[in-house]
# Entry
Amino acid sequence: MKRQLRLALSAGVTFGIVTIFLFLIGFTGTSGDLLADLFGNKNAAPFLGLTPQMVNMLIFLALVGLWAGSYGSRKSKGQTDDPWAPALIGGFTAGLVHGILVGLLALLVGTLNLNHVPINMYLAALLPAAIKMFLLGFSPIQGAIFHLVLFTLTGFLGGLLSRGIGRGSWRARSMASWKNNLDEFNQRPLIKRVRGNPATRYVVYGVLLLLVFLVPLVAGQYWNYTIGTVCIYVLLGLGLNIVVGLAGLLDLGYVAFFAIGAYTMALLTAPAPQHLMWSFWIALPIGVVLAALTGLLLGAPVLRLRGDYLAIVTLGFGEIIRLLSTSDAMTSFSGGPKGVPSIAGPTLFGKPFNSGADFVYLIFLAAILIIFVTNRLQNSRVGRAWEAMREDETVSRAMGINTLTQKLMAFAIGAAFAGLGGALFASRNQFTGPEDFTFMVSVNVVAVVIVGGMGNIPGVIAGALVLKGLPEVLRELQDYRVLVFGALLVVMMLWRPAGIIPSSRRKMDVEKDNGVPGPPKEGGEK
Amino acid sequence: MPSAKSPARRVSTYKIVQFILGILFAGYLLWRLYVVFIGSPAYGPDTWARFLIAGVVLGSVYALIAIGYTLVYGILRMINFAHGDIMMVGAFGGYFVFEAFKAIPAPTLADPKMTFLDANPILSVVAAFIVGASVAALGGFFLEKIAYRPLRGAPRLVPLISAIGASIFLENAAQLLFGTQRRDYSNPAILTRGNGWNLPIGGTTVILPYTGVLTVVVSVLLMAGLYMLVMRTRLGRSMRAVAENKQVAALMGIDVDAVISRTFIISGALAGAGGVMWGIHLGLVYYYVGFLPGIKAFTAAVLGGIGSVPGAMLGGLFLGLVESLGPGILGMSYQLADVIAFGILVLVLIFRPTGIVGEVLTEEKV
# Structure
């Protein structure tokens, strides 16, 4: 009982802090807009004096409250029986604490707002309108009481629900039944025959390809741009996947190679600082080769370092490239902070690429080429050497692998992919400048690889879709994208260090290795 | 490493290249020093004095932050990538103390518009340091608890990625909370930036700013305190024991988790104090303020030999000096000061990853 109360208290405090944080960064208001997009009720009539955004925000808050309650009523360690009363008390307590914290904040902020204190000078998200929305248009005291009641009720309900439905094991059971159904489905003779047939694979690939080639025709300018960006991130992700996922070298300055590809394309084809105006098709391979060469040059001394030191050196290198490109010293050579404008696009058989769709096709082609190359590499002797090196460098050396050469090769190939991506990126945007090459780009690519699944091609594609595509779809989330990136990196490391779609080998390791925390073993209501 | 036991001592080409490059670099440096000081001096002694002052002040802040990296690295063998952002948290803590004190009126007969901040500068500065350090210490504590502790024993890349994630999260949380604009640190009137003692050097006067002196003094005091803590107290002894060998330390009855947690609290507090100094001396605070000092302090820690506390202090001072004197000596524009810092980072890591005064690490540790 006492234990349950302590659990509930800590759950209440945690969720109170989380809710307050969400409010302070303005997410509660955004959740309203987001759900409005989802429900399509943005312009619905006010309901009981509440705008649809407010109703949606309440739905979001209620969900958080339910979660808090169910989290507060979870079983404490070593508790085997499943009594109802402590669970309900736990849910209630967690909800009450949650409500008190949020209510106090609402009261404080509301009062300050009534007295016209410019809170948003210090806390940027707390505009008067946002505060009014959080208080649902009530006075501060009413709003505070409202939140207190809301979270207490939902907390209690959360406790009731999580204990009521299947007493904590409903999740396991539903997973099991889902798996059973899937197994049953897989056992059907027709499915078996279709699966067993090698032609199926090609049919699936063919359909996918057809879809991929149809999409740019129907998508508009904006969507083609987005698809292009996602595909460039697929390219970058696959390149970094070789370095990080296969060879196990963390490269935090990957953007440097991207920048080299982009600047090569820009300087060779643009009229501005260099007056070269070469053809795209000549500049493209030069960019790729230059990036690969830089990779070799940087790699030769650096790759003797292991793990985190390598990460920091590459980060330093990436920053050096960016700082140089912004500095006045390089302005006459590469355009300096203003960047390089009017980069020429490619022409094919005399026809210039100007519509968005043309470029998407080009990027698609590059992506498919890279996927093919990566796939072949991964299953080759080189790929196996990389993976051996990642697992244990000393042992792989004892097995006769020249680790330095292999590392250099991984680094150079990864850099070449980044150079290709950069060249395409610069050519498509018709502009390139230092702002395109911040540290965040490196982090984005690392996130794509890690969230998707290290060392795994479908994983990287999924990662690029999730991290670069989803934020475009959910435009309200734009401001929170990077925040979520950061949180995702931590959360992925805590719960799924192998990524969304782990590569089969990597998955095996993670399950075998006691050191890596797998999914939480008990109290899985998280 | 290839076996060193081969009968005729083989020198790898890598070592030879390294040696030649070293000689070339040293030669270039000497030549530049000659050009700058004797050949055709571009700056008078007063300018060099200004650079020197700026370098020492900056270096003492770097040193404080670098100690945090070194303490954590010594114990966990991981780079606490979010350390710079912990510094940012501390800087914001001090900022809000000053803003709050500024809002309290304390009218006197002479000056009816006097604020509490200007009336009690010592109290304000002490409060800012205490609040900044505490907030940052709290940040360090929760950082370790949430993002690092569950990953104990995982492969080395895993906690590093988690640290990068935590760093990005902190930066963006601060951006969403406090906005993107750069905020002026409102110091007490007596510590207005630019105020200071006038030193007559080279025919003109050079200002020795009060804020700079405050920064150096506080930094030296904190470092002395930390050194005493590590060397003389029970906690310090357990920290050193855990750094030496976690298993054995645990067998000796040391609560390893508690020691690690306290290490993060201490390094967070130092970084927080560094953040307040950064604000008081340089005057700007915003969500990204911790990133560059963080990386540079890491450079400093590596430079001094990561894992060694005196090394971090020396490395910080050295890096501050290089950053302020380097562009002048090498004849580069001041925009490239950061390039020099990063260049040093890359060079040191490549050629001497154990640092200037570092212990000889086995390859496994490097």
In short: The radius of gyration of chain A is 27 Å. Chain A touches chain B through 59 residues (CB under 8 Å). Chain A has two domains: 2-164, 204-512. Residues 204-512 of chain A form a domain with the ABC transporter involved in vitamin B12 uptake, BtuC fold (CATH 1.10.3470).
